[in-house]
Amino acid sequence: MDMLFTMLGGKGMSGLLKTGTAILTTLLVLPALLKLFIVTVDEGWAAIRTRNGKPIIRNRPQRRPSHRGGAVGEVVVLDPGSHGAFPLFYWYRLVDVRCRATDLPARELSGAGGHQHRVHASFEWRPIPTGRDLRVFELDVVNVKERASNIVGAALRDVVRGLEGAELPRNDEINTRVIAASADEVRRACGVELVRVMVTGDALTDGYLLSTALREVDREAKAVAALHALN
């Protein structure tokens, strides 16, 4: 009991308080403070190092070169994982690099033989968070979807215009042709990767059906005989 009362006395209590405070600081406070300055980048996101709201451009070679490090003049990007940052909210910006889809407006396209299609299509794309591509995506393009839609729509029109027959080919063939015709321009102008182009609907227009019906009437035997009689 004397020992207990001694420990609860002035010097003993002070020592216990100091020891307990040190333990709590080590176990709780320090990890909490460290967690405030750790940036965890998840899969599907890219952490872009920024300064005053603009991407940081690498101006010197890396001390330890890596395959994702980037060359001089490229944007500094943090790979998925945990990274230290101080102060936290001024040093990075998260950009969603997951794939997303954009619908093209329905349009009437004519094939090589004059056959008309009402084409409903969409395309999938995702930002490219490296180098010049990121600078285009972040700084130059006001509306990525609008500009990419115009480029893909123009390429789809040119592809359909060169098709023969009354039916569109399979989606995999159209996807290959449109990507080959527009992927480079979409990346250069918008800083995004064109992943896939899909035709989601195809129907004949009323104008084409009417013109076909009139031509079929003109081809009847009586019409052809009347034309020969005139000659």
UniProtKB/TrEMBL annotation:
InterPro entries: Band_7, Band_7/SPFH_dom_sf. Gene3D superfamilies: Band 7 domain (3.30.479.30). It comes from the Bacteria. The chain crosses the membrane at residues 20-41. Keywords: Membrane, Transmembrane, Transmembrane helix. Residues 40-200 form the Band domain. This is SPFH domain / Band 7 family protein.
